[in-house]
Design goal:
Helix content of chain A: over 70%
Number of domains of chain A: 1
Distance between the termini of chain B: 37 Å
Number of strands of chain B: 0
Number of helices of chain A: 12
Number of strands of chain A: 0
Helix content of chain B: over 70%
Distance between the termini of chain A: 34 Å
Oligomer: heterodimer
């Protein structure tokens, strides 16, 4: 364990050094992300103002804002630590460069999915946290300490689920080999976690909502932690999210290993 | 078709944002406490508008154009156009027209299916008499999209790094061209922003064609808008030509 932590620390330092070599680029990316968040906030501001104080699927203005912040922060964590690594997997397979990682005396999954930390998206986490704090302040801090603790735990469950889905997607790409933009695929897939679960309500969308809650539980990722803070603890859903996170972590690891087994080094 | 599984998943995923957008707006209209319309749009018109944006963007989006021009300028491969009796802008335009035609033809089927499924939302539209103006607005959307992007790319003659400008513009574009919601929604709560965006050319690449299709802009207003749009197209063409010739004068074709 200590060895992995040390390695992770080294990855983080190297990543930061890389980023700092191109400081202007780093600042620019940050500015673009801030701009994007600004547009998003403006969008929801206009939306809620045009509604005359109504709610979107039971989420009032600041509750929804908290949801948006939570999504921004969680996506930021996934993008910083895992996105680039996982989407590079199919390239490693195609080029045969995966060999050099498999030869290292360390867990392959750890090495492949954590080796590069992209600090340029880390400010998103901070910006998302800022939005969450602002929303909480506007709601006059409705949460107890137990809720906050549950939120933190479930936030990391959300990260674990998102990571597992990402790993599953990228492992699948090993078989398909064609490297259709995985980043785009991932972005499209995550549209599902960006909205409250309650939106999936209606004769033909309810089953879709059920499917993405219980079978492919992508809707739990943001919904469970955000709901806990805004509306209070729902032990059944919290427990289910915890369970889903563990199952997904195990499943994605198995699929990743299976994918590696079918890998035949391609190049010299 | 060699990768059918991939293709199916890709098509399914591409429809997800459409689904979630429709669900979000449905919830917004259900949750509204004051009346049934937002800025004159009822739910059906709003959904129709957001679907029509996809058609506008099919014509006006130019992925990789500005970046490609800037790269050619930076690494010196621009000279492949200079040594041939070939105008770069003309060549790129012809290339885009061909590319867009192929793209629109191949995606016609999924979009036809989507619009068929969503047909209940198209109860009110501009009618057939609006269609010539709609076709014209799409053509102009293509031209404005092309020449604006080309202009950004040509800034590469003076600036070493244009990718960051491209990022910012792409991000902003999403909002100022009316891809998030019809710009009219801004009128009540952000009148200044609404007025400024009304004067900029970006609304013609997404907002305007959709509004023409829905018949929300018609008669003398439509004529006036089309005239202003023509002026923008001419101005952008002239500006691009001028930037190109001015840029070539500074250009020194390093590398190869």
């Amino acid at each position: 364990m200590g060895r992995y932590l040390r390695l992770f620390g080294a990855f983080a330092r190297i990543g930061l050094a890389n980023e700092m070599a191109f400081r202007a680029n780093f600042l620019m990316k940050m500015a673009v992300e801030a701009l994007w968040l600004g547009i998003l906030l403006l969008f929801y501001d206009v939306l809620f103002r045009s509604m005359g104080g109504g709610t979107v699927a039971g989420w009032d203005r600041y509750g929804y804002l908290f949801f948006v912040g939570c999504n921004y922060a969680l996506s930021g964590v996934v993008e910083t630590f895992f996105l680039e690594n996982c989407t590079a997997l199919s390239d490693l397979v195609r080029s045969g460069d995966l060999d050099q990682y498999l030869l290292k005396p360390i867990d392959e999954q750890f090495l492949v999915t954590c080796r590069h930390i992209d600090w340029s998206t880390f400010p998103n986490v901070v910006q998302g946290a800022g939005v969450m704090l602002y929303a909480m302040a506007a709601l006059h801090w409705p949460a107890h300490l137990t809720q906050v603790i549950a939120f933190v735990v479930l936030f990391f469950c959300g990260v674990a689920m998102a990571y597992s889905f990402l790993l599953l997607l990228c492992s699948a790409s090993v078989w398909m080999v064609r490297n259709q933009s995985l980043v785009e695929m991932w972005w499209l897939f995550t549209t599902l976690m960006r909205y409250p679960r309650e939106l999936f309500h209606g004769t033909w969308v309810s089953p879709i909502g059920m499917f993405f809650t219980y079978v492919v539980p992508v809707l739990l990722i943001i919904n469970v932690p955000a709901t806990i803070m805004v509306r209070g603890l729902d032990p059944w859903f919290a427990g289910f999210a915890l369970f889903a996170a563990v199952v997904l972590l195990i499943l994605s690891r198995q699929v990743f290993r299976l994918a590696l087994r079918s890998y035949r080094s391609a190049s010299s | 078709m060699a990768y059918r599984g991939d293709f199916l998943i890709g098509t399914f995923l591409r429809f997800l944002p459409v689904l979630t957008t429709v669900l979000l707006w449905t919830a917004v209209y259900v949750g509204k406490t004051d009346g049934d319309t937002i800025a004159g749009f009822d739910l059906h018109q709003m959904i129709a508008y957001l679907l029509l944006i996809h058609i506008s963007r099919m014509f006006s989006s130019m992925p990789g154009l500005a970046g490609g021009i800037a790269r050619d300028i930076r690494d010196g491969s621009l000279k492949k156009y200079l040594v041939q009796p070939l105008d770069m802008i003309g060549y790129l335009l012809a290339y885009r027209v061909a590319h867009k035609t192929a793209y629109i033809v191949t995606s016609a089927l999924p979009y036809a299916l989507l619009f068929f499924l969503a047909r209940e939302h198209f109860g009110s539209w501009g009618g057939w008499q609006a269609m010539p103006a709609y076709a014209l607005s799409l053509l102009f959307a293509f031209l404005i999209g092309f020449f604006f992007e080309a202009m950004i790319g040509l800034a590469g003659f003076w600036l070493l790094e244009v990718t960051s400008i491209i990022w910012i513009i792409t991000t902003l574009n999403y909002f100022i061209s009316g891809q998030m919601f019809p710009l009219d929604v801004l009128r009540e709560h952000y009148p200044v922003v609404h007025a400024i965006l009304g004067w900029l050319p970006f609304k013609y690449i997404a907002y305007f064609p959709a509004m023409v299709f829905l018949g929300k802009i018609s008669g003398p207003q439509l004529l006036r808008e089309l005239l202003i749009e023509t002026a923008w197209v001419v101005m952008l063409i002239l500006l691009t030509r001028w930037l190109y010739s001015a840029g070539l004068r500074r250009y020194s074709a390093f590398g190869g």
